[in-house]
Each structure stands twice: as structure tokens, then as C-alpha cells.
UniProtKB/TrEMBL annotation:
PROSITE patterns named among the record's database cross-references: VOC
Taxonomic superkingdom: Bacteria
Stated name of the protein: Lactoylglutathione lyase
GO molecular function, one term: lyase activity
Alphabetized UniProt keyword annotations: Lyase
Pfam hit, one: Glyoxalase
Gene3D superfamilies assigned to the protein according to its UniProt record, in alphabetical order: 2,3-Dihydroxybiphenyl 1,2-Dioxygenase, domain 1 (3.10.180.10)
Keyword Coiled coil attributed: no
Positions of the VOC domain: 1-120
Organism the protein comes from: Sphingobium fuliginis (strain ATCC 27551)
Length: 123
């Protein structure tokens, strides 16, 4: 079981402006902001997702081929992400190669991290 996932950011304030509305769509809210690190959780889990400045002091960079997938109840997360400065990383569509009801979309956050949003819902 995964406890939480962390992504690097070079600007926590900018990351908050993107992730606060995007994660709200899937039921997560900001729980902490300390020294350039931001933590998010849900009603059931206090801490699930974090954005952090790298501890080695070097700039945060993205990993080629690395992404995290967020489960969503609705298909609106992609639009919210783009409306808050995210960029397209793969348009929303059914992805039958995974499952006949698997609907996924990919976006890049403001630091370039690739985020997938997955739902099995038709709305």
C-alpha cells in the first residue's frame, strides 16, 4: 500500500495555485505548508500527496516516463487542470487497452510533472 507520493517543485506558491483547485475535484485539500513543502490529504487520509523542494538543494526536474495517476469520480479534472495553467499531456479518452471503461487524461503541472487522471465513470 502506498502511503503518499511526492513530486518536486521549484515554487510552492505557484504549485498551490495549480494543485488546490485540481485536487479539490478529487476530494483532496491542502493540509500543510512548511518550508517549501506542501501536503495534501482527503477525509479518509490525512496525508497522500506532497510537493517538495529537493532536499539536495538542486532544482526540481521531471523524470521522463514517470507519472502519477489520480483516481477521480468525474471526468472534469483535466479541464480544471488546463484552466489553472496545466498543459496537455494526452487528451481525455477511453483507454480500452487497460479496460473497456478506463477513461484517462494526462496533464503536465506547472513544474512539468506528468499527472494522469483516471475514472471509470461515464460523466
Amino acid at each position: 500500500m502506498i502511503h503518499h507520493v511526492s513530486l518536486g517543485t521549484n515554487d510552492a506558491d505557484r504549485a498551490i495555485r495549480f494543485y488546490d483547485p485540481v485536487l479539490a475535484v478529487i476530494g483532496m485539500s491542502r493540509r500543510s505548508l512548511k518550508g517549501g513543502s506542501v501536503g495534501y490529504g482527503s477525509a479518509a487520509h490525512e496525508y497522500l500527496f506532497a510537493l517538495e523542494k529537493p532536499v539536495d538543494g538542486k532544482p526540481a526536474t521531471v523524470g521522463n516516463g514517470v507519472h502519477i495517476a489520480l483516481a477521480a469520480a468525474r471526468r472534469t479534472v483535466y479541464r480544471v487542470a488546463l484552466a489553472n495553467g496545466g498543459t496537455d499531456g494526452g487528451a481525455p479518452a477511453l483507454r480500452p487497452e487497460y479496460d473497456g471503461n478506463y477513461y484517462g487524461a494526462f496533464v503536465h503541472d506547472l513544474d512539468g510533472n506528468k499527472i494522469e487522471v483516471v475514472t471509470y465513470s461515464a460523466s
